[in-house]
Amino acid sequence: MAAFPINSNFQGDFVMQLVPVDTDDTMDQVAEKCAYHSVGRRVAPQPEKVMRVRLHNANDNFPRDMKVSDAGWRPTETLDIIFADQ
Amino acid sequence: MSDSAETLKPLKTWSHLSKQRKRPSEYEIVSTNLHFHTNNKEKPFEVGQDAQMNDWYLKYRNNSPLTHDDWDAFRDPEQLVYRTYNILQEGQEAYVTGLLNQFSERGNDQMISKEWASDLARLYTPSRYLFHALQMCASYLHQMSPASTISNLSTYQAADHLRWVTHSAYRTCELGKTWDDAGFGKNEREHWEKDAAWQGFRELAEKTLVIWDWAEATVVLEVVLKPAVSAAVQKQLGLAGAENGDTLLSLLNDAQMRDAERHQRQTKSLMEFAMANEANATTIQGWVDKWQPLADKAVEAYCAALTDLPDATEEAKAYMASVRQSFGLK
Amino acid sequence: MYQIPRAEWYDLTRATNWTYSYVTEDEMFPEEMSGARGIPIEEWETYDEPYKVSYPEYVAIQREKDAGAYSVKAALERDAYVDRADPGWISTMIAHYGAIAVNEYAASLAEGRMARFAKAPGNRNMATFGTLDENRHGQIQLFFPHANIKRSRQWDWAHKAMHTNDWASIAARAFFDDIMLCRDAVAVSIMLTFGFETGFTNMQFLGLAADASEAGDHTFASLISSVQTDEARHAQQGGPSLKILIANGHKEEAQKLVDVSIWRAWKLFSVLTGPIMDYYTPLEHRSQSFKEFMVEWIIIQFERQLADLGLDAPWFWDDLVNDLDVTHHGMHLGVWYWRPTVWWNPAAGASPEDREWLEEKYPGWNKTWGKCWDVITDNLNNGREDLTLPETLPYVCNMCQLPIVGTPGNEWNVQDFPLEFEGRLYHFGSKADRWCFEQDPERYKEHQNLIDRFLAGEIQPADLPGALAYMGLGPGEMGKDAHDYAWAEAFKKQAEVA
Question: Which entry of A49, B225, C407, C452 is 20 to 30 Å from C297 by CA?
Answer without folding.
Answer: C407
